[in-house]
Amino acid sequence: MNQRPRPETGGCDETRVLLVDDEPLVLEGLRRSVSTEFAADLAEGPEEGLAKLKEDGPYPVVVSDMRMPGMDGAEFLAEVRTVSPDSIRVMLTGHSDMEIAVRAVNEGQIFRFLTKPVTPKTLLATLRACVAQYHAARLEKEQLKIAIDALEQLDLGTLTALARAIDAKSAWTAGHSERVTNLALKMADAMGLPAKSLEIMHRGGLLHDIGKIGTPLAVLDKPGALEPEEVQIMRDHVKIGVRILEPIPCFREALPMVAQHHEWLDGSGYPAGLAGENISLHARILAVADCYDAIVSDRPYRKGLPKQQALEILIQRSGTQFDPVIIEVFTRLNVAGHLA
Ligand SMILES: [Fe+2]
């Protein structure tokens, strides 16, 4: 097939797109529509598409027709997801294929679907959105790599720097991890926990929200209420955090703080619904400090509340969300003027 020469910018050129359709004339038309901004490689069907991905990939964007002989577009794009997980996937459908297309979107197989015939303007706008999405995902991966590299150093100075980097992702969380750690350490100290516990809590506190590196900024900084899917994405920061720290032996003891800081004493928290003493003491202490700091800090959707009001909220949740013994300690520290 008559292919346009590859740009000289290497394998990750973000203007490259793979177009897959069993009709050569349609393919040629699509290529012409985007040729002002994108260098399209063409594949006449799913097998050729997969072969191109393996030989000439990665492609930032893959656009596939729905109806093709052998493997249909949904199956093909599911396969693309396995072979080239970073590629942003788009499906072209006729109106009659709408149900399949919607299912493919919902199952996360594709980023967008377009109905035929598609205008050059719509196709170009879609490809631009795909490239932006590809960019954002790559940036997040790079941040994740920086975080893991920094963890190899493991001294508290580095961990503090990393905590600042985590919090700096969103202007709303600046300084959160350090403040929460300081507060949690004051409580642990007041409870007479041994030095070893304080050391574990220092590490766990600083990195308790490390999983937020994987939370999209659009969700972290959303100025209004989160949709149910967004709530789930937000909650996933706990699992992501555990996944990041799990392989590091010296974090083993701090891991429960990362995994359990959103569990509630009565079992209605997340992610595991643990209750009572099944939640580690360190995590129960951290949960109080974390919630207090969140309440007194400004958030994109509300202003921070006064300290006294925050304390009252914590007391109201004693026995349901929080361990009453820890709330007691927290109240005492407040009365003694030890809370910043
Ligand atoms: Fe958190």
Description:
With 340 residues, the chain is an alpha/beta fold. The chain is 53% helix and 7% strand. It contains 14 helices and 5 strands. It has helices at residues 24-34, 46-56, 73-83, 98-106, 120-151, 156-168, 176-190, 195-206, 217-220, 228-245, 255-260, 281-296, 307-316, 324-335; strands at residues 16-20, 39-43, 61-65, 88-93, 112-115. Strands 2-1-3-4-5 form a 5-stranded parallel β-sheet, with helices on both faces. Helix 1 (24-34) links the parallel strand 1 and strand 2 (39-43). Helix 7 packs antiparallel against helix 8, helix 7 (176-190) packs across helix 12 (281-296) and helix 12 crosses helix 13 (307-316). The longest helix is centred in the middle third of the chain and has 32 residues, at 120-151. The radius of gyration is 25 Å and the shape is elongated. The model is unreliable at 1-11 (pLDDT under 50). Bound molecules: fe (ii) ion. Fe (ii) ion is lined by residues 209, 237, 261-262. Fe (ii) ion binds next to loops.
In short:
The chain is α/β, with parallel strands linked by helices.
Give the total of beta strands: 5
| Mass-distribution shape | elongated
The percentage helix is 40-55%
Low-confidence stretches: 1-11
The profile of the biggest β sheet is: 5 strands, parallel
SSE order:
EHEHEHEHEHHHHHHHHHH
Quaternary form: single chain
Mean pLDDT across all amino acids: 87
Bound molecules: fe (ii) ion
Gyration radius, in Å: 25 Å
- How far is the first residue's CA from the last residue's CA? 69 Å
Please state the structural category.
Answer: alpha/beta
How many helices does DSSP assign? Answer: 14
- How much of the polypeptide forms β-strand, as a percent range? 5-15%
